[in-house]
Design brief:
The structure is a homodimer of 175-residue chains. By secondary structure, chain A is an alpha/beta fold. The first copy, chain A, has 4 helices and 7 strands. Chain A has one domain: HUPs (Rossmann fold). In chain A, α4 links the parallel β6 and β7. Chains A, B: It holds the Pfam family Usp.
């Protein structure tokens, strides 16, 4: 008999271009790889923890077309963005339920690398999985920064999954 | 029924101070962690590939007390060092046989980070596991360089396992 399941945290984000509720290819890829290569058929041996970090724009506004007239509007904005994040997580939770793997999922806001490491400290998973696009210069720098920071600072082993060049979508709208 | 086992390459090295045939604490730790948290009881679902890279000293001589008088002496030196590396691998192969996990092990010489990435390209494992000491400044820089390079350049997902401060031996001779 095995003891407690291995708790694997996956940091997932939305598609750069399609936005919510679409998961990024690198997030889907990291999830599918984890199930295929690590969990395999040992469904009861693992529990997946999905963390989505919402990164506010530099000025703190996600939706430039909205009009903010009262503190209530900001509250609604936050709720709305949180709902978007929850739809993203729903994708992964549904998949886990289909497969039969226990899971938990939650949303936090802030700087992705800082929040991920803070959540690792708080929830103490056995393993953190971070996907990485390996795409154009901007994404490489950005995603590289998050994964490099986590490899150095997260208080648990970290697996970095690079996307292969052949997995980069022809049409960036699919990313 | 599951398909081919997940092939996990572990880059292992000898104790910094005790030398061959003693495995480093970080190598042992990475191996034990992989078995406990990834393989768990699914022994037939995984195959472990142990790679030990022998790093020549800067001047190419490991043994300053030996006298080299002919090309044969160099040949013997190489065989001797290779034998040391094999003793190191024997530790891990024995453990796998006790547990019942399929494995392979081999020795290569050269620059650790380059050789590891080259062997990943050649043998195409599903996952590369690299331990890291997280010790004093020299080791941190050295091991950090190897694991950082592999995270960026190895053509497969890479897991970096840092050693916890509490696992650093009181007596460095045990490292």
């Amino acid at each position: 008999m095995e003891g407690e399941p291995t708790r694997v945290m996956l940091a997932v984000n939305e598609s750069t271009i399609k936005g919510y509720p679409h998961a990024s290819i690198s997030s889907k890829g990291a999830f599918e790889w984890t199930v295929d290569k690590i969990v395999r058929s040992n469904f009861s041996g693992f529990k997946l923890l999905f963390l989505h970090v919402q990164v506010p724009d530099e000025d703190g506004f996600e939706d430039m077309d909205s009009i903010y007239a009262s503190p209530e509007d900001f509250k609604n904005l936050n709720n709305r963005n949180k709902a978007k994040g929850l739809h993203l997580l729903e994708y992964f939770v549904d998949k886990c339920h289909e497969i039969g793997i226990a899971c938990e999922a939650w949303v936090k806001r802030g700087d992705a690398k800082e929040v991920i490491c803070h959540e690792v400290k708080r929830t103490q998973p056995d393993l953190l999985v971070v996907g990485s696009r390996g795409l154009g210069p901007f994404q490489r720098v950005f995603v590289g920064t998050v994964s490099e920071f986590c490899v150095k600072h997260a208080e648990c082993p970290v697996i970095t999954i690079k996307r292969k060049a052949c997995e980069t979508p022809q049409d960036p709208v699919d990313d």
